[in-house]
Amino acid sequence: VMDRQTEAIMQRFMVGEHDAHDIGVAEALQWCKEAWDSITPAAIQHCWQHAGLFVDRTQIADILNP
């Protein structure tokens, strides 16, 4: 996801836009969705366990796979 975002910013810069980081709301939301979708359930599960939010793996599985 980051590579696509960096590429979009560089393209804006190369065509001479004053603020290459100035993006629209729709594009920002799309980037957020792509970033969120790239996170695996296993990564979320690991973070929750590490933070002590859920100790029981069954509880995590129930939330990730309703």
TrEMBL record:
**What name is this protein filed under?**
DDE-1 domain-containing protein
Protein species of origin: Phytophthora rubi
Upper lineage ranks?
A: Eukaryota, Sar, Stramenopiles, Oomycota, Peronosporomycetes
